[in-house]
Amino acid sequence: MKELSKYNIDIYGLEEKQYDYEMESGDAFFEELEQDLIEHGNFKTHVVLNRSATMIQLNFETKGSVILTCDRSLEPFEEPIDLNGRIILKFGDHNEELTDEIEIINRNTPRINVARYIFEFIALTLPFKKIHPDLRTEDDNLDSIEDEEEGILVYSSGDIEDLESTEEEKIDPRWEALKKLKGEQ
Q: Which Pfam families does the entry mention (predicted)?
């Protein structure tokens, strides 16, 4: 826990203004956290703390890299990290996480540890498919677009009338029957 104590910020008695913190860490950070996602990496985090009477706003800027294992070749590779994140801590009577970005903390809390927030931001920026840069192709990027809806036709070399006539031919016969009952034909 010695490594994670570097990420403690004493908030009790802070004046209502902005504070800046610089934090740097490496492999020891990931070893202290109980997780299996990342084992090695180096990064620097700049934390801007804005204290007001009712809340604390934390803005994180993290740059560095982590070592990941390729899903295809099982070779380790370096994945760059460049992220910005924000957490809002509102003062209340109990501790509660309202959303991913907003938490309620007891107003008598003497210090907060930002290591968990930094790790969560890093974990969220990692690619879903961990592919070594030498093995990446355009097909890997297309897989993520696969689930999107069909695009709109912007240009066609054919006549517009031809397109409209094919659409008319594709009308479901059940709709045709309903149109006849309605008297539209």
A: YceD
Indicate whether 50 belongs to any domain.
yes
What pTM value is reported for the model?
0.68
How much of the chain is in helix, strand and coil states, percent to nearest 5? 30, 35, 35
- Asked if residue 20 belongs to a domain, the reply is yes
Q: How many angstroms separate the CA atoms of 174 and 70, rounded?
A: 52
CA–CA separation, 178 vs 175, rounded Å?
A: 5
What pLDDT, on the 0 to 100 scale, is given for residue 5?
82
Q: What does the block give as tokens for 33?
A: 């956290």
The one-letter code for the residue type at 34 is E
Which residues in the chain show pLDDT less than 70? 1, 138-169, 184-185
Tokens describing residue 3: 């490594």
CA distance 59 to 88: 9
* Per-residue DSSP letter, 32: H
How many domains, in total, are found in the chain?
A: 1
Strands 76-92 and 102-106: parallel
Q: Which residue range(s) make up the domain with 17?
A: 4-142
Q: Flag whether 113 is in a domain.
A: yes
Tell me how far CA of residue 98 lies from CA of 20, 104, 110, in angstroms.
25, 7, 21
